[in-house]
Design goal:
By secondary structure, the protein is mainly alpha-helical. It is built from 11 helices and 2 strands. A two-stranded antiparallel ribbon has the order 1-2. Helix 5 packs parallel to helix 8 (122-129).
Length: 192
């Protein structure tokens, strides 16, 4: 059932099935983290959270919208050492490393998809895509505190998402997930 949902999104998207499956797994992992998601989703069952995770975009954010931040980070990521330890909950640090590796992969191989899937600006995708893989662990350690829910200031979105999942209303859940695409697109519009 979950694979079928991913394949439906895939038929409608130029993004590869592997990228979408990985995104769905990351979304699932994010929704299980303590204190970074929304309280509304914590009360959902694992199956309901899995349905929510089927969005065709990331439910998490690591300041991907902030191209100035990532330009600076791309040029100043410290060298990683085994003695480095996360400054946040270990599960959050592990998730942030996986999410950052995923973001790096998408930015390196499917730069245009990074805008929709992760909310990255073109300059962010370019900066992140040009980082070498050996710099990602240290970068993930320092970026872990920035992990938040995407669209975190849009209570209507998160409430509707949780409500649709709690009622197991697949049609409504899909509409809310599509609303997230609109939020993603609107975030890319220039401010005037």
């Amino acid at each position: 059932m979950q694979a079928a949902a991913v394949s439906r999104w895939n038929k409608e998207s130029p993004v590869s099935g592997e990228i979408m499956r990985s995104l769905r797994e990351l979304n699932c992992g994010f929704l299980e983290l303590p204190g970074v998601g929304t309280d509304r989703l914590a009360a959902l069952s694992a199956a309901q959270r899995a349905a929510v995770a089927g969005c065709p975009y990331a439910l998490f954010d690591l300041r991907f919208f902030d191209d100035t931040h990532w330009q600076r980070r791309a040029h100043s990521a410290p060298a990683w050492s085994v003695a480095d330890t996360p400054r946040v909950d270990g599960r959050i640090a592990v998730f942030a490393q996986s999410a950052l590796f995923y973001a790096w992969h998408v930015a390196s191989t499917a730069r245009m998809s990074a805008r929709l899937l992760l909310g990255m600006h073109d300059r962010t995708a370019a900066a992140l895509g040009n980082i070498t893989v050996d710099r990602l662990p240290a970068l993930a350690l320092t970026e872990s505190p920035n992990l938040t829910a995407r669209f975190r200031h849009c209570d209507a979105y998160w409430s509707a998402l949780a409500e649709a999942a709690a009622r197991s209303d697949r049609a409504r859940l899909r509409r809310v997930q599509l609303y997230g695409l609109q939020l993603s697109a609107a975030a890319q519009l220039p401010c005037r």
